[in-house]
Amino acid sequence: AGHYHVTGADADSVAAALEAGKLEPEIPPYTDFAAYRADGGYAILAECLDGTRSADDVIQVIEESGLRGMGGAGFPTGRKWRIVRGYPGPRLMALNADEGEPGTFKDRVLAEHDPFAIVESLCIAGFAAGASKGWVYVRGEYPRVTQRVTDAVDKARDAGLLGADILGSGFGFDIEVRRGAGAYICGEETALLNSIEGLRGEPRQKPPFPTTHGLFGEPTAVNNPETLFNVIDLLVDGVDVFRSCGTSNSPGTKLFSVSGAVDSPGVYEVPFGQSLAQLLEQAGVCIDPTTVLLGGAAGRFVNPAQTDFLLTLEDAQAQGFTLGSGAVVVYGPDEDMVDVCTRLAAFFADESCGKCVPCRIGTVRQHEIMVQLGKGADPEPAMALIGDIADAMADSSICGLGHTAANAVQSAITLGLIGGPNE
Known about the structure:
By secondary structure, this protein is an alpha/beta fold. The chain has helices spanning 11-19, 33-38, 43-49, 55-65, 77-85, 106-113, 115-129, 143-158, 189-196, 225-237, 239-242, 276-283, 313-318, 337-351, 357-374, 379-396, 400-404, 407-414, and strands spanning 92-97, 133-138, 174-179, 220-223, 253-260, 266-271, 291-294, 300-302, 327-331. The strands form two sheets. It has a five-stranded mixed sheet with strand order 6-5-9-7-8, with helices on both faces. Strands 3-2-1-4 form a four-stranded parallel sheet, sandwiched between helices. Mean pLDDT is 91; it is low at 1-6.
């Protein structure tokens, strides 16, 4: 996806150059409307609007493909759209481009380089689900994504490809771009919906689920950008091509954001079913890495000697891991893992919305214990207490933040990365 090898001393100047538009990634972006149209853009939407493809046809293709959500949950995309379509309108769509998971940057690359595909694919999803409006919720720290997607929406509307009566077809669909305020919790779908509505960004109790009671109480399908990017190619190429790679339960490809102690950090698209070891080899992992954090801050550490498992939703689950949003962070042999886990614990303590007691208190206590460990506290009682806190948060927190806030620390304990005799 394009990357730059910089030192800490270079970081400020490189960031300033990127902000000023003086550095561009290696992949030429599709930010020109005419170029996007010339390369087949909006052809699939046109087929939906002229009657070539019905909404049921689109949903059936998505269901047959086995496409699942790429944001971490892995829910079948076609089923979600069919559920929303089955309820009386108005029906709505939301694109979750918040991408607050540490170590994840795939959606930023997609949105920066092909914003018109976001607009077209969200419109196709709206057509399939019978929705009348969609929202693109962008992470607050992504100003370039916000600018490019907003520009793409405006140009599509000016061309008659968004609005009350798109190309005279009778189908109306419009898009609004909303920018988040930097809250990790708003990556959780119901907290995102609250934020769009102008409410405090905190999760809702489920059930009911967004597919029946979403934005403004209406049926809403929430999708990840990577999921929708698959939709256009799938409808162009067909189910057989899509399922020609991957596995039966995890068909297609997956984007992974690889960073840390590797020679070539960046976004890698690999077929489901490739091993983690192969992905690390592609990225040029350093000699004798200490560990790999798979799935971001809410994921788990992996022993480098056990990276031969397959990168599929089912294999990761069987191994006790999660692919999450595709973050892969490699830690070298000089890394202080107590410090790493302390920073992860601090992240969750800062980002907990505070709505439920287990997460509000548990994340703070977890961080306090990690700080004490860093100061030389007896590891045995500390590890036991962290385990109790982890169980309480996993069993009784309202949302996924609390359920997974102890995953990384717990896995570090299991692997002996922290809590050992020298800690």
